[in-house]
Amino acid sequence: MFGWCIMVLTFATVYEVFMRYVLNAPTTWAFDMSVQMYGALFMMAGAYTLSRNGHVRGDVIHRLLPIKVQAGIDLFLYIIFLLPGVFALIWYGWDFAADSWRYKEVSWSSPSRTQIYFFKTLIPVAGFLVLLQGIAEILRCISCIRTGEWPPRLHDVEETETMLAHKEEDFSEIEDEMRSEMNSGGSK
Asked: How far apart are CA 36 and CA 41, in angstroms?
């Protein structure tokens, strides 16, 4: 859902460039909007990236260890580092967002005085989503320690390009099957 922020950000940036360099009439809101769109993308991508095992990690040695040991290390690190960090993000982010809503905070560095309390609400929301994904990762680690195999990651959320590639592959397979049936049916 937040991937649409990229489209908004792209169109707003193109609009700002056109206004600034072609019409010589820059907008007052473009900078704040781009910061908020990029910030929303950055914050909301945390849980998604964790679900895809896409965060940067130093696994030079980790990947050489037995799978159960990998799961144990990951479980330890999730409990010791991820959970406290996420709880702090939710706790302090909630206070930060509540204060912002209380006095309807606006950007003090912008001439357009853009409202930012909506944006600050994403801080505890992002923390909560990372917490949910962190719990899922902890359960994956526990399952791996018990079974000796990593549970497969769900592929219910994929990049648009990946989904289109899969659909094209499915369509080409269906076409191939139809051709082979027609050829075999015609030769009988």
From this structure: 9
- The model's pLDDT over 143-183, given as tens digits with 9 standing for 90+, comes to 999 999 999 887 655 666 566 666 666 667 777 777 777 77
Q: Give helix then strand counts, H and E, for the chain.
A: 6, 0
> How far from the centroid of its chain's Cα atoms is residue 85's Cα?
18
Q: Is 186 exposed, middle or buried (0-12, 13-18, 19+ CB in 10 A)?
A: exposed
Q: For tokens 């929301």, what's the residue?
A: 125
pTM value > 0.85: no
- Residues 113 and 30 sit within 8 Å (Cβ to Cβ): no
Please choose, from the candidates 68, 60, 43, 69, the residue with its C-alpha nearest in 3D space to the C-alpha of residue 128: 43
Each residue of 30-39: pLDDT tens digit? 888 888 888 8
Residue type, 78: Y
Q: What is the pLDDT of residue 188?
A: 46
- Letter string b/e over residues 126-158, b meaning 16 or more CB atoms within 10 A of that residue's CB: bbbbbbebbebbbebbeebbeeeeeeeeeeeee
Nearest CA to 57 among 67, 70, 44? 70
Query: CA-CA distances (angstroms) from residue 174 to 43, 129, 166, 171, 178?
Result: 40, 38, 12, 5, 6
**Encoding tokens for residue 172?**
């080409």
